[in-house]
Amino acid sequence: MLKSFSCEEPGGSSTLKSLDFFANNIQRLNVSCFPALEYIRLSNNSKLELQADVFASNSRLKTLHLQAVRARALVGLSAETKRNLSSVAFSLFVEKSPLTICGVLKGMDQLNTIEVDLKGSRLPQGNSSLLDCPTPPVVVIKDAKLGNVAQLSLSKGNTSKLYLINCGLKQISRTTFDGYQGLTTLQLNENKVDIQRDAFRGLTHLTFLSFDKSKIRDIDPNWFIPLKKLTCLSLPKNAITELPPKAFSVLTQLEQLYLHFNLLKYISMKPFSKLRRLFKLNLSLNLIDFIEEGSFQDLTNLRYLDLSGNRIKRLTPSVLSGLINLRKFVLYNNRLHFRSYESPFINLTFLEFLEMNYQGPGGQGIGNIGPHFFQGLHRLTSVAIGHSIMVDFHPDAFVPLVNLKYLYIAGVIMKMTNLSAVFLPLKRLKRLTLFRTDLDVLPTNLMPPDNTLEILKVQSNHLHTVEKMMLDALPRLRTLDITENPLTCTCDNAWFKSWAIHNTQTQVSYLYNLHCDNNGRAPYLREFDDKACSYEHASFTLFISCSVTDVLFVCVCLAWHTQGPALRYLLLTLRAKLRGRKGKAGPKFQYDAFVSYSSKDEAWVVGQLVPNLERPAADAPRIRLCLHHRDFRPGTAVLENIETAIYSSRHTICVVTRHFLHSEWCSMEFQLASLRLLCDGSDVLLLVLLEDIPAHCLSPYTRLRKIVRKKTYLLWPEKPEEQGSFWEEKGRRGEDELAQLF
């Protein structure tokens, strides 16, 4: 606390205009070094003593505040200082002081404003006037106990603005303001006052009237009859329970009406009738739960309506009829509930601002914001909605809001909401707030492609990562607030950390206070070491490549294990085509027939087939055979030997037995011979069945079964006595017939 202030050297500051020493312990003062000083506040320095010439060097001083300072300090100032003052404020306990207000003001001829704190004083006995001297235009009297002034004339001055604040007024009568017929402003705040019906009879020039905190219970329309020029009426923080019919109808010039913080329970009987010039109406913080249809019918010029802090459950176009020029509508903290088909604001075509937060408790929540909810509100630029029990946004809810610039949604569950669809129409949106909306992720197409979003706030959600594509789709973004989200310090957010620190266009709010996982004990996001993440892409690519290779290898192995013959057949087919086997003219064959048989049937081939075909009787044709054990070239791959044998022979003889069917090599030889049959179109297969094989045994071998059914085949007799005649019978057919068989 300062005990003194002195500047001995003149010219300390030639430009300083204002000084405030409020609530110190200053006893001595010297401000001569501030020649440009215009305002000084010395209130609440109870021991202050001022010399008569203390402000001799401050010729521009106009305002002097000395509240809670002995009044004689002001009285003792030089005549020149007093003459220059235009505004003074001081305290005076008139009951115990020989000074009067007029005595203190003596010599202050240029005053425009006085403010007097009477410190709870009562009027002195025998004194019928508080001010018996000319008063300035603005008079403020505070903290007095004036009591019943029904017969007291305050003064005869040129005062146009009178403020009697907490002055203990108990009654106002027709004579109370007889000396103030020129009043334009009258403020009687914090007085428990009884107002007579003709109390304002002479105040025909009054434009502003205020009774804040005056415990008024009832309004008498007769009060306002003389106040034809009144433009502002303020009645907040009273105990008004109802508004009488046409309560303010005589105030045809009224522009502002303040009735907030009262006990109104309903609005009915058209209390605002004829207020066609009213542009601001405040009915907030009452107990209103019902508004009669047509109550606002005459408020055709109203621009601002505040119904917040009430208990309103329903609003319909009929209730809001007449508000055709409304610009700002405040409805937060009510109990509104809407159905999906409703359009409550359809007639408010000039509305620009709508505030609907905190609908509940005790209600059902806002309910459904349907496709027609904002119908007609194409001029709306700002919407605030949320903090409600239940809010459900239809995908087309915001379609009418083509000019919306500011959207605030908070305290609702939007996890299942299609944000991309809901925000698609908002191409002109500048600021979007999604506060505590239970979001786990933001879609990459959060806003339409040609959006103009500049500020995005998504505080207090469950976001773990920030998608690069989402931010890339917001080219005009200037501010991003993602505080109170559990952002993970992983490589998924490495790009975001770098982007937030180094980008010059978008500021990330409180970036250096963001903790990993929103845990105060965890490291800061900015301290996350993302060097290892630079290898992640290469590692991921290598991982994918190895994984694909492993999967392909396993698939090939499984396919070979389960479908080996088919695959081998396919390989042979491709190989045959590549070698150009098909379409060759005039081939030269090395063998007449290649014999395909199981090694378990080799005894029959060597003992029966070879002798009878290669070494027949003298009159039978000699046939050259190709046999595995005899004619395959050593050191050559088995598949290549088989292929060479088949394509070097005119025909292929398949010795079919159950052993043949179960042999993979025999199956391959048969498939390759069938391939030649398919490609050449010639009959190159001859089947010799050494045993009678039932049809069901041939079912798995589709190709073999078809040949058995459609072609002639040879069946080896089971009876020994018939086996000898088998070759003789074949020999008697002659060379042509045998050639046909082969």
Automatic annotation (TrEMBL):
One GO-annotated biological process of the protein: innate immune response
A molecular-function term among this protein's GO annotations: transmembrane signaling receptor activity
InterPro entries reported for this sequence: Leu-rich_rpt, Leu-rich_rpt_typical-subtyp, LRR_dom_sf, TIR_dom, Toll-like_receptor, Toll_tir_struct_dom_sf
Pfam family, one: TIR
Leader peptide range in chain numbering: none
Keyword Repressor assigned: no
Main location: membrane
PROSITE patterns assigned to the protein according to its UniProt record, in alphabetical order: LRR, TIR
Residues annotated as domain TIR: 589-734
Record-annotated membrane-spanning stretches: none
Membrane-protein topology: Single-pass type I membrane protein
SUPFAM superfamilies registered for this protein in UniProt: L domain-like, Toll/Interleukin receptor TIR domain
Keyword Cell membrane: no
One Gene Ontology cellular component: plasma membrane
Ranges in coiled-coil conformation: none
Location of this chain's protein in the cell: Membrane
Keywords associated with the record: Glycoprotein, Immunity, Inflammatory response, Innate immunity, Leucine-rich repeat, Membrane, Receptor, Repeat, Signal, Transmembrane, Transmembrane helix
Domain of life of the native organism: Eukaryota
Family assignment from sequence similarity: Belongs to the Toll-like receptor family.
Name this protein carries in UniProt: Toll-like receptor 13
Annotated organism of origin: Mastacembelus armatus
